[in-house]
Specification:
By secondary structure, this protein is of the alpha+beta class. Helix content is about 20%, strand content about 35%. Strands 6-5-7-12-9-10 form a 6-stranded antiparallel beta sheet. The structure holds beta-D-mannopyranose.
């Protein structure tokens, strides 16, 4: 039975008189005649799991057991009842927000839709086919594999698409999330199903099909906004209507503009300009409030409001400054006229089964992004255009979104049918996302341009085919997509491909536009290379780690606890991954033998190494104006470059990002024979500051102490102080001492940054086996630890066997004699009762030989 609703809110839109069609669904494998209950929105994999027909795909090597699903066709059916009053509406639309992917939709015997693109929503007028009483709806999904086979058979060459894990690499023929065919961190799960909401919409004489709040000019003194509406007059006569826009901020008096319009039958475009004096500007995370206005549009005919739509709008200006200068070409974001150093991360889909990604999960992820002082996420081109919820949560938190179109790491076809699909997808998603304050830019693809230049395709395919691929590239990324952005989202920046120009390891790298640095991974370079290879904007750099043991435990048993066991290898999709982790680990640490130690140390290593990059990028502003980590999250429990694992557990990397991206940071580095202290600040105001430098030994004895006074740099980085490296450490043994830096406000004594610098690599340190005293207090369902250590304890990791718990801090160095309180709360708000707490430190790792 379908659920009847009056008014409900979905995304930014208030929908009048809708009937959500999420009930009574059944599914069947085509030809089987067995109908089983189904959940909509969902995927066939979720339904098969729920019915016990598929094992948990994430467990062990079950990935192999689920591959048959993609070769089958699947049917979904439901029925719903309608009343005479409902049928009396002027028009009724059947709305699918997403169908995955090749689907024929039949309603009461009529074929009303043929879908072929997962990335678009469909809105079909169906009044004519509806009946009083029972109505039958059937969606028939065809196997995306078999559907693409004719193209595969006749193509004459195999597209690069190296991440597509099946011999028949057909993914590029289908407009469907690329990562679902496999990736170097991804399980292959080629899904199908009604993956986003479906409903009937009952319309009166007119509907607002689109409402674009176009921000033509925004400064702190005035915002000029054009309210652009597409109003569909559903009758066959001209109708006189009043169109009204109200704009409200909190309790302030609303601004309003009204206009009388004669609506012609069909779609009418109406424009209502509105100026807002002294607007509350939407500010990025760290710079103030992400102010949001409520914009509301309505259409009234004969005194009755027949349609309305609303959006939450952040008024701001965002400019991507890509200008030639003496050093190359800049790439940075200017928000409300102020250059912003972008601190952030790359987002992949949070689940292999997309309908599982609820708003709560988006909220949690965006909270994590905000907590790490990030102001940008990149929605990477191998996944999906995310749900409205992601962009809404980014709007609320001042997180800018770099939005890729969904193309990654391979060329694509450019036949007319394909181009038509891409064009529809661009129109649909640009219109869906363009009202978001967070949406900072569009990018044509991920690494396709780089691939065309450097990945050996010319040699592999020969000139003729290569030329065809190059023509396709031009048509898609230099013509079709930028033209759509220009037409539908004027003013928003479009970048053809990321990275902009050269690949890492090429001459002239790092001078122009955004870069991806894979030197520390594929290039097998030490982390120190990040200090030297400074780009104008780092849009990707990454290093892998295993997830922590409790996550490994979710898919493996103790007999699999070996880096090279079949189960662990099924969860390590990078063929060189384990080798690279161990190789780099060996540069900084003694490589442990025990699996659990390797997992722990690997997490520490990833965090330390990546932090080196974040700090180098920040230090080098304004030459470099951004640092985006590869990658924020995981789509299943796996070994990967992520900072947060599938269950929401922060790896050491995310804590390190929070430290490296703090609004104010003091950072010491060795440059030649100098030890240089940099102060980096994203704060927009200066103040007098004092830096206290203490040379300390591992037992806590202060060997030397001095203070340096100065001013906090404003939205910039500055060399604050330097000393000779040798004299800095003259009076001590570098293997047992460190520098403790505390940066404070000179007058208010507020601690702005508290960091340590180690003169030698961990491998060379003589770390003590510190005694950590831990007091545990249960407090309102949370758990508070008070930790104190007699000597330095490095990389303290608190483990709790509950998924998704939140730690106020973790993976930190406990300084001798300093007491730290750590609050642990459960991810879902449930009380943490009698959990066991396990604490590790670096010197706990034991080696069989000494
Ligand atoms: C980057 C990404 C992904 C990939 C990652 C690690 O370039 O764009 O394609 O997962 O490399 O190899």
């Amino acid at each position: 039975m379908a659920l009847l609703t009056g008014f409900f809110s979905l995304g930014n839109t208030t929908l009048a008189d809708s009937l959500t069609l999420h009930s009574g669904w059944q599914f069947s494998k085509y030809g089987s005649n067995e109908w089983l209950p189904a959940v909509v929105p969902g995927t066939v994999h979720q339904d098969l799991i729920a019915q016990g027909k598929l094992p948990d795909p994430f467990y062990g090597m079950n990935e192999d057991e689920i591959q048959w699903v993609e070769d089958e066709d699947w049917l979904y059916r439901t029925s719903f009842t309608l009343t005479e009053e409902q049928l009396a509406h002027q028009e009724i639309f059947l709305v699918f927000e997403g169908l995955d992917t090749y689907a024929d939709v039949s309603l009461n015997g009529a074929c009303i839709l043929k879908a072929d693109n997962m990335f678009v929503g469909y809105r079909v007028p169906v009044k004519h086919f509806l009946r009083k009483g029972e109505n039958k709806l059937l969606v028939s999904f065809r196997s995306p594999l078999r559907e693409a086979m004719p193209q595969w058979e006749t193509n004459g060459f195999i597209y690069p698409a190296a991440n597509d894990h099946r011999a028949e690499r057909v993914s590029i023929f289908t407009r469907k999330a690329p990562y679902s065919y496999g990736w170097d961190w991804g399980i292959r799960m080629v899904t199908c199903g009604i993956w986003r909401p479906v409903r009937l919409e009952f319309a009166g004489q007119a509907v607002i099909e689109d409402y674009f709040v176009c921000q033509e000019s925004v400064t702190s003194s005035r915002a000029e906004v054009d309210n652009r509406l597409e109003i569909n007059n559903l009758s066959n006569q001209i109708q006189e209507a009043q169109v009204k826009i109200t704009c409200t901020y909190g309790q302030e008096r609303s601004r309003m503009i009204e206009q009388a319009v004669s609506l012609q039958p069909g779609v009418n475009t109406v424009s209502l300009p509105l100026n807002i004096e002294s607007p509350h500007l939407w500010m990025p995370n760290g710079w103030g409030e992400a102010a949001l206005y409520d914009f509301h549009a309505s259409v009234t005919i004969d005194g009755k409001t027949v349609a309305c739509k609303q959006h939450q709008i952040g008024l701001r200006s965002i400019r991507v400054v890509q200008e030639k200068d003496s050093l190359g070409m800049s790439f940075y974001f200017e928000v409300n006229g102020i250059p912003m150093f972008a601190k952030g991360t790359n987002l992949i889909p949070s689940d292999a089964l997309l309908p599982r990604v609820t708003r709560e999960r988006y909220v949690c992820l965006l909270e994590d992004v905000q907590a790490a002082h990030m102001n940008m996420i990149r929605v990477w081109g191998g996944g999906v255009y995310e749900d409205d919820a992601l962009y809404e949560e980014a709007d609320k938190r001042g997180i800018l979104v770099w939005q890729d179109f969904m193309f990654a790491c391979t060329p694509y076809p450019h036949d007319p049918a394909f181009l038509k699909q891409v064009s529809e997808e661009a129109v649909y998603n640009i219109k869906r996302l363009r009202n978001h304050a967070s949406l900072a830019m569009w990018c044509g693809n991920n690494e396709v341009s780089e691939g065309m230049k450097y990945w050996g395709w010319k040699k592999k395919y020969g000139t003729e085919i290569y030329q065809q691929l190059a023509d396709g590239y031009d048509i898609l990324f230099r013509r079709l997509l930028p033209e759509k952005v220009k037409e539908l989202d004027p003013g928003r920046f479009y970048l053809e491909s990321s990275p902009y120009e050269a690949n890492w390891g090429r001459p002239n790298t790092w001078k122009n536009g955004d870069s991806h640095n894979w030197g520390i991974w594929y290039g097998q370079k030490p982390f120190e290379s990040l200090d030297a290879e400074i780009p104008r904007f780092m849009s990707e750099f990454g290093f892998q780690s295993f997830p922590e043991m409790k996550t490994i435990h979710s898919f493996a048993s103790p007999e699999d606890y070996n880096m090279e066991s079949p189960v662990m290898n099924a969860h390590q999709k990078s063929s060189i991954g384990n080798f690279l982790i161990k190789k780099t680990m060996g540069l900084y640490y003694r490589v442990p033998e025990k699996f659990e130690d390797l997992v722990y140390l690997g997490l520490v290593l990833q965090g330390q190494g990546m932090r080196q990059g974040m700090e180098a990028h920040r230090r080098n502003r304004p030459y470099c104006m951004g640092s985006l980590i590869w990658q924020l999250n995981d789509s299943w429990p796996v070994v990967s470059w992520s900072a947060i694992d599938y269950y929401g557990n922060w790896k050491a990397l995310h804590y390190q990002s929070r430290r490296a991206f703090a609004p104010v940071l003091v950072d010491a580095v060795r440059e030649g024979d100098k030890l240089k202290y940099y102060v980096m600040s994203d704060v927009l105001k200066t103040k007098d500051i004092v830096l206290q430098i203490e040379l300390t030994d591992f037992k806590g004895k202060v060997l030397r102490r001095h203070q340096v006074k100065g001013e906090l740099p404003v939205n910039s980085s500055a060399l604050f102080y330097e000393e000779d490296w040798n004299s800095a450490f003259a009076a001590c043994d570098t293997t047992t001492s460190f520098i403790h830096m505390t940066l404070k406000g000179a007058h208010d004594r507020q601690v702005l940054s508290d960091e340590v610098y180690y003169p030698v690599r961990p491998k060379a340190q003589h770390l003590p086996q510190a005694k950590i005293n831990c007091k545990i207090k249960k407090k309102n369902g949370a758990c508070e630890l008070t930790l104190k250590s007699d000597q330095l304890a490095r990389d303290v990791f608190i483990e709790i066997p509950v998924q998704g718990v939140r730690f106020s801090d973790n993976f930190f160095d406990l300084l001798p004699g300093v007491s730290r309180k750590i609050l642990i709360t459960s991810g879902d708000g449930s009380p943490l009762e009698d959990v066991s707490v396990h604490i590790r430190q670096l010197s706990d790792i034991s080696y069989t030989e000494n």
